[in-house]
Amino acid sequence: MGGANALAIESASGIWEIVQAGAAELIAPGRYRLTRLLRGQRGTENAMGNPTPGGAQAVVLDDSLATLPIAEADLGIPWNWRIGPASHAKSEETYVTQSFTPAGVGLRPFSVAHVEQPWHRPRVHGDLTIRWTQRSRALATDSWGGLEVLLGEELQAYEVEILDGATVKRVLTRTTPTALYTTADQITDWGALLGSGDTLDIRIYQLSALVGGARRDPSYSPSESSSMSDATTHLALPYLLAARAQKHVTHNEALRLLDGLVQLSILDRDLTAPPASLAEGDRYIVGAGATGDWAGWDLNVAFWTDGAWLRLSPRVGWRAGSKMRTCCWSLTVWAGSGPPRTRCRT
Predict the structure, then answer these.
(1) 273 belongs to a structural domain
(2) Which of 47, 205, 238, 292 could cross-link to 214 by cystine, CB 3.0-4.6 Å?
């Protein structure tokens, strides 16, 4: 939208979400209906109200706004402002006093996105590689042709918190969008290696040399706590997010998942190990007690694509069919048998 129809909406005290509207319809004097909303713009996804309270303050972001003369050295220092009509003297009663401490919110790095889910692919128990996608405040980042995002920081630095509930078990510091959670660290933290079916809660922060370590700022929300998901609810298809490069990678990943999920025709539902002969697009419901590349995938759908297995975790109501029978996932089992129904119209 080229930055048009942008508003800042106060979803909570001092918390502002930037929203853009694809259409603004005047329905009464001074009253508009905004539709085709783009929410959580410019890294404000953590400020999204669900819902935003009625009567929330809104500020139109246009050329009439002026930037306050705040230098980097002024961050964190309380200021007392006199606010009033520019045509009046600052000593007049039309001016009010407002205290404000600039925190540099607009300088913080955006949250990272698309943290890789290891359970989608076969893995040997041991070192766990955690990968994510960097985002940047640089406007040029949204180009579809860019190979990498513009850093926008003096240095690339991240902190990955390994969590046990609210307790931080370990902090991994890295300079690339990937972190290795080693076998030794896992045993130290949990007493054993992370196995099939285990979950791991993490928080990832991109750090800024200018506004300091985000992990130590209680007002900063990392990507883990974002109220806006980076994937769809039912099929977990990745969204195309702003401020990241290589959007075609995300788009193709969503197409690959759709290709595996839609019209779910399976070849077998009892095998416990991958067959020796495979063809692109083969799909199987994995039997109980699976081994090999399917270890830990019991009753999930195994999809052979691009020379590797992709795990599809079923949701209640999913239906799968073969030449001889159909079945439906009912939370714990694939229920139903018999030939698929057919209906003819004459």
Answers:
(1) yes
(2) 205
